[in-house]
Amino acid sequence: MAGMANQAFGYTGNGRKRQGSDDIGGDGDMIVAKKGMGQGAAACWDDPAAALAAARHEFGEHGGVNMSIEASATFTVMEPETMRRMFAGELGPDRDFFIYSRHFNPTVLNLGRQMACLEGTEAAYCTASGMSAISSVLMQICSSGGHVVASQALYGGTHALLTHFLPRACNITTSFVDIRDHVAVREAIVEGRTKALYFEAMSNPTLTVADVPELSRIAHEKGVTVVVDNTFAPMVLSPARLGADVVVHSISKFISGGADIIAGAVCGPASLVNSMMDLHQGTLMLLGPTMNAKVAFELSERIPHLGLRMKEHCSRALTFATRLKKMGLKVIYPGLEDHPDHALLKSMANKNYGYGGLMCVDMETEERANRFMNLLQNYSQFGFMAVSLGYYETLMSCSGSSTSSEMSHEEQVLAGISPGLVRLSVGYIGTLEQRWSQLEKAISRMVQEGGMLLKN
User: Fold this and answer.
1) Sign of the CA dihedral 97, 101, 128, 390?
2) Which parts of this chain are annotated as the region Disordered (predicted)?
């Protein structure tokens, strides 16, 4: 029965309903071969936008330029013997045979092909949330007694998963290190026990940039799988092309762009993704973090303009960060030349996408951070106080008391999270100068109140 999963990610589909017998042969395989431009094809493209453009375009059932939504939970067969053969692994999605949408769904698989192209991996599987993608990967790679080496600077939910849930529920422990300290990373790996090195390509919220090629080299020397969360930097960075084994995403953020969808993705080797869909041992199959087909359709329509959106997010973030720094504010943005990881990011980044759509302003205390955000939202209408990121409006939060609140004070200090760190996900709606005037207005008001002292 496990063989069913092993057929999954050669799936290309033929965009047509099956006629007559379920036992398609000869011609069906030829159609797949001719039209199969999905998974794996992206590896030859340096630019993720080029890889996406090279992927097969899925048309609608009646010739529509957009694919049809396959909303069925279960699928019929034409002959009784077919169901046995599907469960035996003889027939699968690679030949347009589907059983049940918790296993595989044509619309969700199409989004998976797009994600594989975006990240330059052999395969991808889309999930109901980013956290389900992260937890499924780590529980598949690590068995009971396993060990993870992870960055100190992580999203609070991921930190809680590694610190509290996995040790209690799965007997999987984690050693947290400064991901910039490669000696510490190497020393934390326990040969034979450490199964995964986990970090964020650009850390939440401190915007530390990981040296993906060097960290991958260190991990691979010791037989450790490298898992990278690229939620903060889609299009900007391509961790798999830099040496990482697995890339995970919260698609809810930049890839969605609308702050209206919760979704995730696992991008990596076909062997790993297939193992995660194994009927007996697969975390994706058995834990069931299933993406709804209607959600997959919505997302597949947004990915084609992700590159354009990312360029504008990044361009505005760089402009605002540069101007705020000149005003004397303490700004953290890897696009600034004085950021400690600027040269590293420049050496790894895909050309012409910029340096990321997030920036931080350190107000030093939570009180000043809250006053600053209040003025930005309620006085100058610059943005919204809300968690998450990647929205067309600017979103801002004080990380220490919100998205990183799962971490203790000591853990936040180790991660470099100041109590007054304001994380801004820079939007692109309105004109740049319109938004800058709103930002400047809030700063001027805070200076007048005596709540901010500009250094220049």
Assistant:
1) positive
2) 1-27
Query: Domain total for the chain?
Result: 3
Phi and psi at 423, nearest 5°, equal -95, 125
CA–chain centroid gap for 65, Å, is 27
DSSP 163: I
Model pTM score: 0.89
Residues 328, 245 share a domain: no
* CA dist., res. 334 & res. 342, Å (int): 5
CATH code for the domain in which residue 362 is found: 3.90.1150.10
Of the candidates 250, 280, 303, which is a domain's last residue? Answer: 303
pLDDT truncated to tens, each residue of the chain (456 aa)? Answer: 344 443 444 333 333 334 334 443 333 332 222 233 234 444 567 899 999 999 889 999 889 999 999 999 999 999 999 999 998 889 999 889 999 999 999 999 999 999 999 999 999 999 999 999 999 999 999 999 999 999 999 999 999 999 999 999 999 999 999 999 999 999 999 999 999 999 999 999 999 999 999 999 999 999 999 999 999 999 999 999 999 999 999 999 999 999 999 999 999 999 999 999 999 999 999 999 999 999 999 999 999 999 999 999 999 999 999 999 999 999 999 999 999 999 999 999 999 999 999 999 999 999 999 999 999 999 999 999 999 999 999 999 997 666 667 777 787 777 677 889 999 999 999 999 999 999 999 999 999 988 776 765
Residue 354 in contact with residue 314, Cβ under 8 Å? yes
